């Protein structure tokens, strides 16, 4: 059923406006992340035309490299569903994720597992992207992980790139000196 | 049957490049009709037609035929018309009519590939000792294998006690201490709480962070680990990396998993800069060997070693 909804959604004339509006909201959280010295990525999850979860990168804060914006937001949907006493799988299956940067390979795997059918993202993620840039986890044959999802990229990408540039120019203050630069001579197996 | 050491040696999951069969490509080859001119002809060809991506090929080979005639690689990726003009020069007068021959496209990375390449054309081979040891199952010492096995045994004991499908464990190999253990919780209404994700988060908690507040009974070992670490800290403070500011995420740590990590967990381990991964059961959709080899993905900023281990024996 939700696939039909998405087709309707994508074909709507107001689509550009709607996407833009939700994406602007995601940028608020990306800006917050930058302020906090985190990689500036922000996201929201929209269910039945309302925001039920938001997320920003919290890797340095939690000392957990997996605390990406999408994971934060997924946690919130699980919590929200419990509070509302609705089946979380049903909520995910009718939700759209707006995220300022293409989800990484890990988050793409996570998104398949919760079953979000549609992801709208800003710029591509040249370093870790899991929706086409490095690997295509969103539509790879990975049945045990969950259903594949559809992606629409490039929405407000300039703003997303600009934020990332501002971050990487400043460098991540929490990474040790030798880890900041990508070492090309690292042993590859 | 008598067990040898290599039976217990973990099996490295290498980049596809080390495992794949030899790929072939076409080059033009000529017979050298006057052996005396071999050196000068080969030199001239190297100048006129450098073998750009085929540097691993030896330019000249002796044929198996009884007269011991020699053959030389003329060029690659050209049409007959393109090189005919050059070959009409008198310095090439001793070359026979060029014909297409299949040769190895890439340089051999392993001895096995080297042997296979030689069936087609002589090539140069620079052996990588580390790769050879990984393939020959002579990479780990007996002591190291013993340590790996004992951690694996501990992991499976933990899995059985917790009665879950998957379990994971993180070790600091420098002090041979278990830092965190976890078991799968995705059945408990949290689809992302795979054993590996939980284990990474427990390490984060040991470092004063953490994202999931889980009060689970299934981590009895953890308190023991912290105690061990504190003891190690008192005895040899420099050995306890956990509390030191130097430690960054899971750098230098080993992860043990019962089942091959999924794509999400595999990438979580990249982000966490894990040192090595050991698992027992492959998974058809797995991210570290079966469906993807995320640990060897050259475009990523961190790669690590992955080993498949034997199921620990029950006492
Ligand atoms: Zn991510
Ligand atoms: Zn997993």
UniProtKB/TrEMBL annotation, chain A:
Protein name as catalogued: CMP/dCMP-type deaminase domain-containing protein
Domain CMP/dCMP-type deaminase per the UniProt entry, residue ranges: 17-142
Annotated coiled-coil segments of the chain: none
Gene source species: Magallana gigas (Pacific oyster)
One GO CC annotation: nucleus
Gene Ontology molecular-function annotations: tRNA-specific adenosine-34 deaminase activity; zinc ion binding
Keywords: Hydrolase, Metal-binding, Zinc
SUPFAM superfamilies in alphabetical order: Cytidine deaminase-like
Top-level taxon: Eukaryota
A GO biological process held by the record: tRNA wobble adenosine to inosine editing
Organism classification: Eukaryota, Metazoa, Spiralia, Lophotrochozoa, Mollusca
UniProtKB/TrEMBL annotation, chain B:
Domain CMP/dCMP-type deaminase: 146-307
Pfam families, A to Z: dCMP_cyt_deam_1
GO molecular function ontology, one term from the record: tRNA-specific adenosine-34 deaminase activity
UniProt keyword annotations, A-Z: tRNA processing
GO biological process: tRNA processing
InterPro entries xref list: CMP_dCMP_dom, Cytidine_deaminase-like
PANTHER family: CYTOSINE DEAMINASE FAMILY MEMBER, INACTIVE TRNA-SPECIFIC ADENOSINE DEAMINASE-LIKE PROTEIN 3-RELATED
Family: Belongs to the cytidine and deoxycytidylate deaminase family. ADAT3 subfamily.
The name this protein goes by in its record: CMP/dCMP-type deaminase domain-containing protein
């Amino acid at each position: 059923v939700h696939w039909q909804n998405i087709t309707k959604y994508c074909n709507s004339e107001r689509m550009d406006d709607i996407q833009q509006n939700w994406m602007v909201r995601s940028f608020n959280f990306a800006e917050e992340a930058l302020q906090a010295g985190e990689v500036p990525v922000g996201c929201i999850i929209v269910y039945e035309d309302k925001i039920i979860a938001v997320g920003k990168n919290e890797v340095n804060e939690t000392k957990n490299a997996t605390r990406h914006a999408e994971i934060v937001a997924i946690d919130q949907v699980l919590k929200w569903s419990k509070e509302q006493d609705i089946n979380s799988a049903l909520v995910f299956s009718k939700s759209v994720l707006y995220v300022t940067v293409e989800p990484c390979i890990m988050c793409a795997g996570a998104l398949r597992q919760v079953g979000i059918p549609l992801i709208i993202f800003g710029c591509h993620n040249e370093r870790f992207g899991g929706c086409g840039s490095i690997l295509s986890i969103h539509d790879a044959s990975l049945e045990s992980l969950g259903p594949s999802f559809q992606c629409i990229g490039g929405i407000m990408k300039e703003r997303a790139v600009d934020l990332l540039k501002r971050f990487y120019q400043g460098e991540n203050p929490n990474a040790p000196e030798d880890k900041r630069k990508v070492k090309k001579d690292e042993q590859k197996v | 049957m008598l067990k040898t050491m290599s039976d217990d040696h973990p099996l490295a999951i290498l980049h596809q490049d080390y495992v794949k069969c030899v790929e072939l490509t076409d080059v033009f080859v000529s017979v050298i009709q006057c052996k005396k001119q071999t050196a000068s002809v080969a030199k001239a060809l190297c100048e006129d037609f450098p073998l750009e991506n085929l540097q691993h090929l030896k330019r000249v080979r002796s044929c198996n035929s009884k007269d011991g005639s020699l053959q030389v690689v003329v060029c690659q990726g050209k049409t007959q018309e393109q090189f005919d003009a050059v070959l009409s020069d008198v310095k090439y007068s001793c070359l026979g009519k060029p014909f297409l021959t299949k040769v190895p496209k890439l340089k051999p990375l392993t001895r096995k590939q080297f042997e296979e390449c030689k069936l087609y054309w002589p090539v140069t081979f620079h052996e990588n000792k580390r790769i050879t040891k990984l393939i020959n199952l002579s990479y780990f010492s007996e002591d190291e294998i013993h340590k790996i096995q004992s951690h694996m045994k501990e992991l499976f004991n933990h899995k059985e006690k917790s009665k879950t499908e998957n379990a994971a464990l993180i070790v600091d190999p420098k002090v041979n201490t278990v830092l965190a253990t976890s078991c799968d919780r995705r059945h408990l209404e949290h689809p992302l709480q795979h054993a590996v994700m939980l284990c990474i988060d427990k390490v984060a908690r040991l470092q004063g962070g953490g994202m999931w507040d889980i009060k689970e009974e299934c981590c009895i070992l953890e308190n023991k680990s912290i105690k061990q670490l504190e003891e190690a800290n008192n005895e040899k403070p420099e050995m306890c990396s956990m509390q030191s500011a130097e430690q960054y995420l899971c750098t230098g740590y080993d992860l043990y998993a019962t089942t091959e990590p999924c794509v999400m967990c595999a990438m979580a381990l990249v982000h966490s800069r894990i040192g090595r991964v050991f698992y027992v059961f492959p998974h058809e959709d797995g991210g570290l060997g079966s469906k993807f080899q995320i640990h060897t993905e050259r475009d990523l900023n961190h790669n690590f070693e992955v080993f498949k281990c034997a199921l620990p024996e029950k006492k």
